[in-house]
Design goal:
Radius of gyration: 27 Å
Order of helices and strands: EEHEEEEEEEEE
Largest sheet: 9 strands, antiparallel
Structural class: mainly beta
Mean pLDDT: 86
Low-confidence stretches: none
Number of strands: 11
Length: 168
């Protein structure tokens, strides 16, 4: 089996990712008309999934003697891969010592996105009358009025890092 996530870059913000279409042959479902075993007109039914509006979430927390200068600690959502710039400083400048360690921690990674599932249809014409053969697929035609959309949030995968400390 192929691991589809191995080379998958999740979309962020306005980006979209469309997955391969999934089709069920009309001949299998009995949707159409078969003249012979190789001749007929069949209606295939399929679905396409699109991911969009992705964002990465994580909890960011200052360590022991630290504070953020321009960022509120807690759960943070990012819908861009542009760098996040913020200041980490000593919590109490007047009492700080050179030996005091400062830093921050990132934990509880997650990924949220919208998924849209759109049904499709296509027509398969398979006609062979000896002197003329026609094997044609017409479509696919997206049935947008039947599409459904849902929000998903995934926590970290087993075996991946749950948190990371950044000492400074």
């Amino acid at each position: 089996s192929k691991d589809a996530s191995a080379n998958f870059r999740p979309p962020l913000g306005r980006e979209q990712a469309q997955f391969d279409d999934f089709w069920v042959r009309g001949k299998t479902l009995g949707l159409g008309y078969g003249i012979t075993s190789s001749n007929g007109v069949w209606l295939d039914i399929g679905i396409v999934a699109t991911m969009r509006k992705g964002k990465v979430g994580f909890k960011i927390t200052p360590k022991n003697n630290s504070a953020f200068g321009n960022l509120r600690p807690g759960l943070l959502w990012r819908d861009s891969n542009k760098p996040l710039r913020f200041v980490v400083r000593h919590k109490n400048i007047e009492r700080s010592r050179i030996s005091d360690k400062i830093g921050f921690s990132i934990s509880q990674p997650r990924y949220a996105f919208k998924a849209q599932f759109t049904p499709q249809a296509r027509l398969n014409l398979n006609l062979d009358i000896g002197i003329y053969a026609l094997n044609e697929t017409i479509g696919p035609f997206a049935l947008d009025f039947l599409s459904i959309e849902n929000d998903f949030v995934f926590d970290r995968h087993n075996g991946t890092v749950n948190s990371y400390d950044f000492p400074m």
